[in-house]
Specification:
Elements (H helix, E strand, L loop, with lengths): L6 H21 L43 H25 L3 H31 L13 H22 L3 E7 L4 H17 L3 E5 L12 E2 L3 H5 L6 E6 L5 E6 L4 H13 L7
Parallel strand pairs: 1-2, 2-3
Antiparallel strand pairs: 1-4, 4-5
Helix pairs in contact: 2-3, 4-7
Length: 272
């Protein structure tokens, strides 16, 4: 009679025999088509994988009461609606120009024009009653005020010239064969004789003009300033050596005075 070994002995032997295989499977060794028995592979048939914990999304707060629109926002929406309606009526009147369509478009356009007229009327009333908002006090538009403004400004420019002449002078770049240079030279001579503006003539070709028979020869300043055409006027400061291009071509004596005053005695936007 054959003796059956105890169950615990059979299990022990089986475990001993399969130990290397289990170890190999667990460690990703050869003989299996997956890296580890602990690794999840959803491509395998009937393979069980632990579910990954779900990440809770951002909590959504219940919609509260909507913020009421401001009067400006309501007005903007109203304007946009009116413009859209007017544009639609115009398009319909063009595509299908029936009397009714044209009448509807003309009525809508007239309504918009009436709104603009009221706006314009209230605008001028507000300006009349608030002098600080009246731009005409800075830049007059009627003929009488324009003449007064121009006269006062010219007087201020001329008063400033005596102080300006202490620090600033004019470089006059020219060529002896340039007709525009010949035309500008008497104007500069007049400014010197009348207002004491210092003019330093610089000849590009070395020859002079009747008003300036003995000019300075160019010593590289023409190239430094990038001068490509003459006549050219450049302001020069005798103290800090600044150079400010003033004008090219022929300009009047008053324009020269005004530009000198603006560039040396005012800030951008001050006169406007």
């Amino acid at each position: 009679m054959m003796r059956i070994p105890p169950v615990w002995l059979v299990l022990a032997v089986a475990a001993a025999g399969s130990g290397p295989a289990l170890a190999t499977a667990a460690s990703g060794g050869a003989g299996i088509d997956y890296p580890s028995i602990w690794a999840c592979d959803r491509s395998k048939f009937n393979w069980y994988c632990d579910l990954e914990p779900e990440t809770p999304g951002p909590a959504t707060e219940p919609d509260g009461p909507k913020k009421p629109k401001t009067r400006e926002e309501q007005a903007l929406e109203r304007i946009e609606t009116l413009q859209k309606e007017l544009k639609a009526k115009r398009a319909l009147a063009i595509v299908d120009p029936t009397p009714d369509n044209l009448k509807a478009y003309i009525a809508a356009q007239e309504a918009m024009m009436n709104m603009g007229s009221v706006f314009s009327d209230v605008w001028r009333r507000v300006v009349w009653q608030n002098p600080d908002l009246n731009y005409e006090l800075k830049r007059p538009v009627n003929n009488a005020a324009i003449a007064t403004y121009a006269s006062a400004r010219k007087a201020a420019e001329k008063r400033q010239l005596s102080d300006i002449n202490k620090e600033w002078g004019l470089f006059f770049f020219f060529r002896s064969d340039c007709p525009y240079c010949h035309r500008l030279a008497p104007t500069l001579k007049f400014l010197t004789d009348t207002y004491g503006i210092t003019v330093l003539p610089v000849s590009v070709d070395g020859a002079g003009l009747p008003e300036y028979p003995n000019p300075q020869r160019d010593n590289g300043l023409v190239e430094k300033l990038g001068i490509r055409q003459v006549p050219m006027l450049v302001l020069g400061n005798v103290k800090d050596k600044r150079l400010l291009p003033l004008a090219s071509g022929v300009i009047s004596a008053q324009d020269v005075i005004e530009r000198i005053y603006v560039l040396t005695s005012t800030q951008p936007g001050e006169l406007y």
